[in-house]
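Dear colleague,

Following up on Tuesday's group meeting, I ran the structure prediction for the three-component complex that the binding team flagged. I've pasted the input sequences exactly as they went in, so you can double-check that nothing got truncated or mislabelled along the way. The structure tokens for the whole assembly follow below. Feel free to forward this to whoever is handling the docking comparison.

Inputs:
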Amino acid sequence: MEIYSLLEKVRTQKPVIHHLTNWVTIYDCANIVKVFGASPVMAHAKEESGDMAKIASALVLNIGTLTPEFVESMKIAAKSANENGIPVILDVCGAGATKFRDDKCFELLNEVRIDIIKGNASEVARIAGEDVMTKGVDATEIEKDLLVLAKNLANARHCTVVITGKEDIICNPKKCYIVKNGTEIMSHIVGTGCMATSVIGTFAAVEKNLAKASVAGLVCFEIAAELAEKESKGAGSFKANLFDAVYNLNKEQIEKMQKIDE
Amino acid sequence: MEIYSLLEKVRTQKPVIHHLTNWVTIYDCANIVKVFGASPVMAHAKEESGDMAKIASALVLNIGTLTPEFVESMKIAAKSANENGIPVILDVCGAGATKFRDDKCFELLNEVRIDIIKGNASEVARIAGEDVMTKGVDATEIEKDLLVLAKNLANARHCTVVITGKEDIICNPKKCYIVKNGTEIMSHIVGTGCMATSVIGTFAAVEKNLAKASVAGLVCFEIAAELAEKESKGAGSFKANLFDAVYNLNKEQIEKMQKIDE
Amino acid sequence: MEIYSLLEKVRTQKPVIHHLTNWVTIYDCANIVKVFGASPVMAHAKEESGDMAKIASALVLNIGTLTPEFVESMKIAAKSANENGIPVILDVCGAGATKFRDDKCFELLNEVRIDIIKGNASEVARIAGEDVMTKGVDATEIEKDLLVLAKNLANARHCTVVITGKEDIICNPKKCYIVKNGTEIMSHIVGTGCMATSVIGTFAAVEKNLAKASVAGLVCFEIAAELAEKESKGAGSFKANLFDAVYNLNKEQIEKMQKIDE
């Protein structure tokens, strides 16, 4: 896969990535998009979320700190994106933790077109109708074969499904990929999951095959994490180094380090 | 006090710490909990804040950017925590700055059970009924003997009281502790006070004696700050180093550096 | 211009800077004010935003993530600031992106007294009535002579106008300044524009000539950025180093590095 050429497209085209995301990691989501070379916008008022989606090249939704009003704004933005042919990525952050959260996820999935569903194993399992309990925002171990789960959900919802974890699974109805990049320290700070979603949105803005876009985004982000870890003394320096590594990411690093199973 | 054994409990049990906190430092609050080894959740919708409290092991409330609706969600979460025997920590951030803020603090204190009240000297003095004017979010010097103030408030409210400052005072109705760790640079960046509250919540999730939990949390956090400062060129590198130091904090450092008066 | 003496005033007087700002960069806005030595407050509830403005020495408004309710709170705070003679700074963040955003900007400009209007070229052009399309939050190239634009808007609105970019233009009805400090990497991370506004607010709290205050704030912030860049490997370390450089900024650096055209 020509991953570096997609990164170059991001850096050259500087697509606008509109977000309705959570209040915890909103800065990191905006900043990772910016440091990748694209242009983040985060506008959640229902009075403008639809108009803003029109000038964007991708829409990222993340339910981490959802309210009923916020989900209404998400729907307005998503309908506008749907009408204008702009890809919509939904991070089902925390699905399974409360009934309210699950209900709102299904509302979004049923009322607007979601092009990429993204979450960790337990979150996506819940969305697929499996009975799994989410503990906080971390993945719990689940029994199901995740590849089958992702493939079935991609077929059922006619979309791309991304399950992140030690290995990332990316499926559309036709094909699955496994990305084996990344490093354990990513799970020791808050925000890497949300940033990964924003990065997927960024690459979805420049590549119509959304499974390929997701793979490319995850590979770039996770290679940067591997490079960052080598320079780090702990969780604090890792995070600063992660942005440095994304900023400086080059063709040689990507081609040498990428680990993708098709 | 066996502080390191409590830190080990946090790292092993990975308790879920539910927050309804302010929008300024929400990322840092979540991240410090995560880097200590626990699992942060920040869900403020009134439709789910009660359910989320049920799956948590401690509830942290912080009124830094309160609204009437937000305080309603806090009450729902706190009542759920009260019913389920989960400790509730209230950071009375900015108490004394406006009448609205004071009124809402007293509403919370009177309508739900607060297990730990935490603030700086002027904030806690206001909650105790003293007439002190808060300038911004920094402590103002006050005349009162803070130890007496804390002890009286702990007795009046049947709870644990934590006053942070150059020296931290921790009292329950039976006993007081003074923690003398920490460093001045902590007061030169935004967020150390809010993070301290989240850390106290994290330790309250694994230790039933909430005064001991508060002491242990503050000692760990402030030793990490002392270690971080030694590596720092200023406020920016200090913050990254603080997370590194928490991430790497070990038994030897704690036993050698802890400064607690009982 | 005696820029260092204004920085000293900030550090000595520690003015309270009240903000109603966006949720993306709210931490950075608070922290940059703090690291400059002043005291940030961010209180957006309509029930207290007016009272909080009374105890502040400057009020910073930023419409980055505006809603109708939020703008109502801004008006309450601004009216309180107007009545109490406290300068009001408005960052017209994202003006031109949606009709809603433009309408709300004009509502603020027409209903309360704004003392400093601040934005990038395309945003300020829109506020001045020029027809420019904003792409994300980055400046687009515009044809108009920006100096004329700023001067005309300052005259029309009887205020100070600040247009930030590669060179910053600062005009009041009587005089214009151009600040040539700063570095390109500032535009590769999220938050430098919002922080610049908070810094201008901080200096406006200690200097009645608001054009001079704006120049001083920008010069200090941008010299710090130049110093930070020299120590940085990329966007992540640049940001940590920026706070270090502000923290350590001294008279010699300012006098040697400042680039101001009058």
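Residues 133-144 of chain B have pLDDT under 50 and may be disordered.

Cheers,
M.
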